[in-house]
Amino acid sequence: xxxxRSQILARTLxxxxxxxxxxxxxxxxxTRLDELGRxxxxxxxxxxxxPVQVRGVxxxxxxxxxxxxxxxxxxxGGGYCLCSPNxxxxxxxxxxxxxxxxxxxxxxxxxxxxxxxxxxxxxLNACFWLLDEGVPPQHLVIAGDSAGxxxxxxxxxxxxxxxxxxxxxxxxxxxWTDLTFSGASIRALAGVDPILRWRETPMVRYYTGDYPPDxxxxxxxxxxxxxxxxxxIHAGSQEILLDDARRxxxxxxxxxxxxxxxxxxxxxxxxxxxAPFVPEAQQSIEKIGAFVRQHSGGxxxx
Length: 302
Fold this sequence. Notes:
The protein has 302 residues and is an alpha/beta fold.
């Protein structure tokens, strides 16, 4: 008989898939996912959540009760159209505890109301706001999952192009780096990934607007990746974006960027969100915390 955790996990995965595949409006999908986030993923103890305005954009500080040197700017996934701090607060809290770090969870503007480059502008403004608030770049890490992983890379590329200070490191979880869907795993694993399915989706059109999907700041797999910070990539072996992660790691390595790719057997898209129910998810989070400490001066003994 399946354990209670397994039953809860199966129900949650089913509800997420049904929400994404049913013919709901974008707003209905957002509402359903937010409700799942609030009710399905319990916030761990020993963290504080404090709302903040970041140059006119809502965000949350998710902080451990213990002192923390590192700061993580976290950019949530959701195809640039869905999700919010409600869906990712639990993951942000576990990252905060694992490092420890103060996590700024940004509620960036979403498409189709706000197509590219709105999300990128919000992420850039958050970086500059953190620097203005006195966060040293050597203590700053940008992290994100899925679309947020692509946005993490685009933000670092824009910082480099602007000659601005770069963060100490980047973390990409199941990153969506190619909005042209040219990776072989998109179709090969379409029947395996329990979260995402291969299908024609309007999300690409919603986000790209008047820009082509292979624009390097929309699909950073096609960007110049030289001189980016050390990057950690975690992906599941059963997700349709597996080749996005693999090809990104290959291109970063070719550009001379220190990169670590870890593929988790049997795991799916952004499995880290399910840390309360999946041991591998918490193990991944602990490895991310160690990577952030290594590169940003985080100190468990502080």
